[in-house]
């Protein structure tokens, strides 16, 4: 089970979108080198306001490019990096992975999946109505988050568009992803 990286993005400043790069470097225990969200403790502003000493379970943000196809069908134009992700993939069911899954990306990098991204209202500032497209409810009324997954870097390495993404599931029983 695997896919490919289609884009990589990073930004050293707090902005909603992140520019695409030819390569990003993942640093073990920290995240994306030079990215504003890199660090052993939380770097997202809302999380820092709650408790700046909590561990950073959101070092790397990954989104499946198939989401952009779905959004295009609903009339939205979203490209890699637009939603603030670091790694855009194709061919991996990111939202279906269990907590603790290892993603082997490129030649050396390994990211451990920690949970679902919990998108905020900034998405509607980017494109009005987009939040309702990436957060909704299923038939049973449970919240469904589609804006990607978060992870921590277990092994350092460079990541480029075209790199393979290999999925290593954790031992069963599997825990479904929850928001982090």
TrEMBL record:
Q: Which domain of life is it from?
A: Bacteria
Limits of the MOSC domain: 18-168
Matches recorded under PANTHER family: METAL-SULFUR CLUSTER BIOSYNTHESIS PROTEINS YUAD-RELATED, MOSC DOMAIN-CONTAINING PROTEIN
Give one Pfam family, short name only.
Answer: MOSC
Checking InterPro entries in the record gives: MoCF_Sase_C, MOSC_domain, Pyrv_Knase-like_insert_dom_sf
Please give the name of this protein. Answer: MOSC domain-containing protein
């Amino acid at each position: 089970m695997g896919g490919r990286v289609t884009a990589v993005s990073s930004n050293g400043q707090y902005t909603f979108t992140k520019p695409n790069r030819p390569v990003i470097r993942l640093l073990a225990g920290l995240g994306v080198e030079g990215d504003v969200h890199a660090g052993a403790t939380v770097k997202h502003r809302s999380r820092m306001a709650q408790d700046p000493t909590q561990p950073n379970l959101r070092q790397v943000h990954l989104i499946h490019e198939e989401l952009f196809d779905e959004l295009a069908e609903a009339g939205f134009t979203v490209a890699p990096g637009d939603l603030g992700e670091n790694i855009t993939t194709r061919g991996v069911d990111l939202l279906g992975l269990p907590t603790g899954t290892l993603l082997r990306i490129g030649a050396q990098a390994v990211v451990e999946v920690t949970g679902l991204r919990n998108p905020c209202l900034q998405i509607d500032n980017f494109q009005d109505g987009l939040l309702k497209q990436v957060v909704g409810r299923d038939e049973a009324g449970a919240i469904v988050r589609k804006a990607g997954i978060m992870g921590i870097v277990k092994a350092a390495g460079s990541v480029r568009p075209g790199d393979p993404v290999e999925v290593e599931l954790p031992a069963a029983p599997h825990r479904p992803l929850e928001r982090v």
